[in-house]
Amino acid sequence: MTAEQHPVTGLDEVVHQRVRLGILTIAHEARRAEFGYLRTQLDLTAGNLSKHLSVLEAAGLIELEKGYAGKRGRTWITLTPAGDVALAEEVGRLKALIARIETNPEAR
Amino acid sequence: MTAEQHPVTGLDEVVHQRVRLGILTIAHEARRAEFGYLRTQLDLTAGNLSKHLSVLEAAGLIELEKGYAGKRGRTWITLTPAGDVALAEEVGRLKALIARIETNPEAR
What we know:
The structure is a homodimer of 108-residue chains. Chain A has 108 residues and is an alpha+beta fold. Chain A has a single domain (11-101), classed as Winged helix-like DNA-binding domain superfamily/Winged helix DNA-binding domain (Arc Repressor Mutant, subunit A, Orthogonal Bundle), CATH 1.10.10.10. In chain A, 55% of the residues lie in helices and 17% in strands. The first copy, chain A, has helices at 13-16, 18-30, 35-41, 46-58, 81-102; strands spanning 33-34, 62-69, 72-79. Chain A has a three-stranded antiparallel sheet with strand order 1-3-2. The relative contact order of chain A is 0.18. Chains A and B meet through helix 2 and helix 5 of A and helix 2 and helix 5 of B.
C-alpha cells in the first residue's frame, strides 16, 4: 500500500468481510466459541458459517476443535495468536478510516 | 437484527465491502470524486471499479455524472443524501463493534 493510497486498501478482505469479522470478534470475546452459538449470533445457515470458517482456518486465524457435549458432536472455534493480531490490525485500520471520515464532516 | 444478535449482523454488505467502503469514504471527503482518482486511490482496475460503482448506484447511494475535461470523457461520482446516511450508519456500527472488541482485551 503506497503512502498516497487510501487506508481502505490496507484492509484484509479475509478479516474485513462482514461474517468473518463477526466470527473473529465473537471468538475474541468468548476465547472459545461453539459452532451453534456462532450460527445463532450471526444469523447464518450451518453451510454458510462452515464456508467462512474454512477461509479463516486456511488463513491460520482460527483453530477448529471437534469434540462431544454428552452424546452430541460439537465444534469449538478459537482464535490463533495470528488471529488476534489480524483482528487488532483490522481495528486499527477501521479507526484510521473512521477518523478520516469524521475529519470531513458532511460539507453540504 | 434481534437484540441478542451480534452488531456485525447490522452491517450492510453493500456499504461494508472493502472497495465500496473506500469509494463512499473518498466521495464523502472529495464531495465529487473523478473515476480515475478513485481508481488510483483504491488501486483497482477500471472494470473492478465500474462493477462496484454499479452496485452503489443501484442502491441509490451514489450518482454518476458523465462529462468532458477538455476533449477527454470523464465520470464523476457524488454521494447522494442516502449515501451520506448509509456511510454514517456504517461508521456507527463499526464503532460499536470496535468498542465491543476493546472491552474484551486479549485474555491470554
